[in-house]
Structure formats: C-alpha cells, structure tokens
Amino acid sequence: MKVQFGFKHLLIGGVCAVLLAGCGQTTSSNSSASANNDNSTIGSIVIQHDMGTTELKQPATHVVALEWSFVDDLLALGITPVGIADDDKPKAMEKLAGKPIEYMPLGKRETPDLEKIAGVAPDLIIADTDRHSKIKDQLDQIAPTIVLNSRKGSYEDSIKDFETIAKSVGKEAEAKERLVQHDKMMAVMKKQVEALPEKRVLVGVARKGDFNAHSTTSYAGEVLNDMGFDNVIQGSEKEPYKEVNLETITAMDPDIIFIATDDSEVITNEWKKLPVWQNLKAVKNHHVYMVDRDIWTRFRGITPAEKIGQSALDYISGKLKSES
C-alpha cells in the first residue's frame, strides 16, 4: 500500500479536520470546557492513559498499534489493527496472531514511520510510554493517541492495558469475558506449580555480550510469580530488567532457568563450558530451558501470558524438549 500524498499535507488536513469538527483528543485540563461548549462530546468515550486523557467521539475501529502487546490485545477483542510497527517481521506477527493477518507494516517499534501511519487514516493510535512519549504530539496530529506502558510494564500493567484498549474500541463486555477465561486458565496452572517440589526460577534474555534478567516486576517475571514460582531477581517499577553475570547467578543458584534468545551466539554458550555453570542446581537437574523470545519477552499480552505459563510447565514436565 502506498501513501498517495505528502505527510505534511496529511498533518495539516488532519489538524484542520479536528478543529472544524470540534472534537478529537483533549486533555484533563480542557475536557470540562469542551463539554460545556460543544454538545457533540455527549456520549463520547474518555480514555485515561499514561499521558493524560483522550476523548473519542465513538469506539475506534481503525486502530494503529505501535507495540506488539497492543496487537495481541486487539486480536483478543476481534479487531485486526490496520497498521502495526512490526520491526519488519511479518512472521512474528503471524506467530502472534496464530495465522496470517493483513495490515500495513509501519517500520520499527522504536521509530515508527509517521507518514505510513497517516496513510492508513487511523481513528486511534496506541503508543508505548517508553518508546513513544516524545513523539506523542506528532501522533496526535494524525489521530487521537493513547499511551500505555508495555515495553517496561508488568503483567499487571498488561491486564490494565487490555481493559483500557477494550474501552477505546467499545469491547468492554468482551474483555470481561476474556479475562474470566484467562483467570481460570492461570488458576489451573497455578495449581500445577503448587505441586512442584522446586520453584526458584531465573528468566532472562541471553545476548552475545550479556544476560538480561527479567525481575519480579517485568512482564514474564511477574507472570511466573503470579503462577507461584519464586523469581530470584527482585526488581522495581523503574528497573524491571537487570544485567547479571555468572557470579550472580551462581550465588543465587536457581532451581530452574529459562533463557530467551533468538541469537546463535550468546554469552550462555561460553558459560556452559565452565565448571561453575555445570555445578548449578538447574544444570545438574536438567532444568535449563531455551524458550521462544517472542512469546516470553516481546509479545506481552493476555494470550502470551497463558503460553508462557503452559510452556513453562511443559518444559518442566518433559512434554516440551529444549537444549540445556
């Protein structure tokens, strides 16, 4: 799909349309004045998010998702985004959706293509707090934008994001139903974790030069904690991820290690050659598992949480095999 005219003209046209309609995005500071002066706001949807308040005239149907967890949330509500910042990885989106889906690729999540976003004429943009706060004003010129905490958010944050997105697309009843189903699935898995004799777990991303542990406040870390595992890396809201070395891992000596990576050359390959690694409890008991990085650390939605939980149990039980 090609954009048929210049980005500058799109922005100017979009701003004029908003001004003429007397609607679109507002903030908490001016929403009262808008309500008093414009009867068109009656019946509108007011969305609270990380950067204030956004008002929609009606539920959004033409949505752009700039983070992958937002894609999962929308798909769970029966909506396919018209545009996705997919990092130029259509196969990852197919994995996320469980089938091929049609959408406009919008480039990298870190630096989405604003001209392509304008080209799909969205009525809502869902942006990430960490990645996109600095470009929110530019996004607002294209369409009403809500900003949610995905990249550095926790599992609890992902649930709240799902509910916020459901409100913005008029699918709150469907979201409640889906969350009831989700809670039941997680409760079943929690019972299985209770029966495990050893629960101290380390989960992290292995790269060529470092190992980035996902703490108790990270998405994957909190999923495991909520299931009843004991994450050996404590985190904070500001620091959900911590770089750790082999010495730190040795001192903590977890029962189970989940390593997420999609690289062939990673630091743990070197660690495996060392006696200190071979002496780890998880290594000796064959409880080191290489897991799918997309599902465990990138997707971060309702369905991925269920997949993390089930795959963790399947690895431990031996239903799934992994290189250790």
UniProtKB/TrEMBL annotation:
The keyword Manganese does not apply. Pfam families: Peripla_BP_2. It is found in: Cell envelope. InterPro entries: ABC_transptr_periplasmic_BD, Bact_iron-sidero_bind. The keyword Signal applies. Gene3D superfamilies: Nitrogenase molybdenum iron protein domain. Residues 62-324 form the Fe/B12 periplasmic-binding domain. Keywords: Signal, Transport. CDD domains: FhuD. Belongs to the bacterial solute-binding protein 8 family. This is ABC transporter substrate-binding protein. The lineage of its organism: Bacteria, Bacillati, Bacillota, Bacilli, Bacillales.
